[in-house]
Amino acid sequence: MGLLGAPKVDKLLKKRDIKGLIKTLSYRKRASVRGAAAKALGEIRPSEAVEPLMSAMGDEDAKVRIAVVRALASIGDESTIPQLVDLLRTETNSDVQAELAMALDQLGPAAVAPLIEVFEAGDVGVKRVTAKALAMIRHPSAVAPMVRALQSDGLSLMEDLSTALRVMDYQPDMSVSAACYLVALREWERVVELGAAALEPLIDHLEHKDDDVAHDARLALVLIGDPAVEPLIEAFKLRSQAIRVRAVQALGVIQADRALGPMIAAICPPPVGSKDPVIRTATVMALGEMGSEKALTRLSAALNDPHPDVRDAASEALRRIGELNAEARDAMDDGGEESDEDEEMVT
Asked: Quick one: the chain helix, strand, coil %, rounded to 5?
């Protein structure tokens, strides 16, 4: 049958021929005809079309599936919610996913419980999609599971969940989950105010793919100061290269003496020290920033490190420490002279 033999959807709609439109959902030769039939059924909204429309969600054409979802949303049968939620979980086309989310929003609060169930059991991709649907519905019961996921699912979901929670008017408290929310939204001043609660998500963000975000996370840790030292030391010992580099940079600025031991050990020859020249270089530079004379022996030894970047950093660090200590001595001398003058004036 050629194009002239294709079903005339407009005539079927005008006659309200529901059976004819349902049959047209299976017309294989033209996806546009199947989509038009689904749209027409959405205008008529017959209950008997629900099952055939659900079957049509298996259509290989994404535009047809979008038309089918819109028709189902228009009919508004709440019995379709579990199937639509399951389709949201398995659908791979982002446009169809968006239509499914809007359809579930249209179907209202009855969709919330099954969406939460799928959200909590799903992988990162499923959580991302269902979070958008839950944000559209904006039901209060969805807030708690999304806040819990903020802490458990790490960087991969933090921004998506925070965006969804902001749409739902979530008001953060002083918890770690609230810190995850604020970190993801880049509200750095509020993050710093949270103090210790913000340390875990901030350290995770030290390896963010956006260098500016990683830099701001490091600055926030520096501003939190002393409470960040132990977590930063642990991160420096155990985490990825990106986190270790930025953690030691933060430690160098905070200048806590208790960080000196692990930092000095890291620039020792292996197996005591780090095998990674990037880590050794960053650590040498941070020790120079700290300006402690306790590091002089190991920094002098680092002048013979096998990697040129480490040797260059050691030379600069030693120069830096020399300048800092000279300034300190000059300040002490100036202070002593002022004190003598003060004593003479008192006398």
From this structure: 80, 0, 20
At 282, the pLDDT band (50, 70, 90 cuts) reads very high
Q: Which of 124, 129, 49 is nearest to 92 (CA)?
A: 129
Torsion on CA atoms 309, 313, 315, 321, rounded to nearest 10:
-170
pTM over 0.85: no
Please, which residues have CB within 8 angstroms of residue 96's CB and are 6 or more apart in sequence? 62, 65, 66, 69
Instruction: Report the alpha-carbon angle 92-95-99, nearest 5.
Output: 105
Q: Which of 223, 234, 285 is nearest to 258 (CA)?
A: 234
The token duo for 257 is 């003496």
Residue 93 CB partners (closer than 8 Å, separation 6+) = 62, 65
Length of the chain: 347
Please answer whether residues 151 and 177 qualify as being in contact, where contact means their C-beta atoms are separated by less than 8 angstroms. Answer: yes
Contact in structure between 201 and 158 (CB atoms under 8 Å): yes
Cα–Cα distance, 320 to 286 (Å, whole number):
11
195-233 pLDDT per residue, tens: 999 999 999 999 998 999 999 999 999 999 999 999 999
Tell me the CATH class for 255-347: mainly alpha
- For domain 7-75, is the CATH number 3.30.70.1230? no
| In contact, 154 and 183? CB cutoff 8 Å | no
**Where in the chain do CATH 1.25.10.10 domains reside?**
7-75, 255-347
Residue-level pLDDT at 1: 38
